Amino acid sequence: MRYWGNAHGLVDAGADIIEWRVDHFAQVREMAQVMAALAEIRGALKALPLLFTFRSKKEGGETELSDEAYFALNREAARSGLVDVIDIELFNDEAQIRSLVDDAHAAGVKVIMSNHDFHKTPAQEDIIYRLRRMQDLGADLPKIAVMPQSPQDVLTLLAATLTMKEKYATRPLITMSMGKSGGVSRVTGRLFGSAMTFGTVGQASAPGQIAIAKLREVMDILS
């Protein structure tokens, strides 16, 4: 079946964790269909960790959901026993975020809390503030992705990552600079404190993502 085939290819590519971008799923508004597809993917991945992500339109996603539907979808995924990690976007209602984080943790599911800026790179202090805010809200892995307008912006992201890692982080964090000019952050981010990077098999879901085989090759050279 379609989902099994896609997942099987990702396993063969040697990924450490698989992200399902459910906002690209045509039947995302039908909970039963989402859960059926999720069960199929889980079966194909076997023990490989699965990250469940609905990326909202405002943060670069494919589809828009109401706030109520967004939280219901993530809560159902977390409680399903089929996923290992869910992604919760930072810029949502605080009470809703805290409730969903609690439900995910009660189900044994980790939380990536994320923010994506497709227009600019915020100031270093703002990047650090957002990452610290994610920690305060209970994220297991704070994540931020920003768009550079200059090489200096890439350095700003990397400097913020290093400062966060050395001074404030109480858990792993994920950072990246997007687009072609930000690609260097995807392969060197771990040298500055980023715990994870995102590669592709086939079509990219964010600007600047690198094919997993090339990503591993470059990271092996730098390690």
Describe this structure in words.
- Its EC number is 4.2.1.10.
- Belongs to the type-I 3-dehydroquinase family.
- It catalyses: 3-dehydroquinate = 3-dehydroshikimate + H2O.
- It holds the Pfam family DHquinase_I.
- The structure is a single chain.
- With 223 residues, the protein is of the alpha/beta class.
- The protein has 2 domains: 112 residues, TIM Barrel (Alpha-Beta Barrel); 105 residues, Aldolase class I (TIM Barrel, Alpha-Beta Barrel), CATH 3.20.20.70.
- The strands form 2 sheets. Strands 1-2-3-4-5-6 form a 6-stranded parallel beta sheet. The protein has a two-stranded parallel ribbon with strand order 7-8.
Q: Architecture of the largest domain, CATH level 2? A: Alpha-Beta Barrel
Q: Would you tell me the structural class of the helices and strands?
A: alpha/beta
Helix content: 40-55%
Strand percent estimate:
15-25%
The gross shape turns out to be globular
Question: Which sheet architecture does the biggest sheet show?
Answer: 6 strands, parallel
The CATH homologous superfamily of the largest domain corresponds to Aldolase class I
Radius of gyration over all CA atoms, rounded: 17 Å
Give the count of helical stretches: 8
Question: For the residues shown, what is the average pLDDT?
Answer: 90
Q: Which residue ranges are poorly predicted, with pLDDT under 50 across at least 5 consecutive positions?
A: 1-5
CATH class of the largest domain, anyone?
Answer: Alpha Beta
Q: Might you state the CATH topology name of the largest domain?
A: TIM Barrel
Distance between the termini: 38 Å
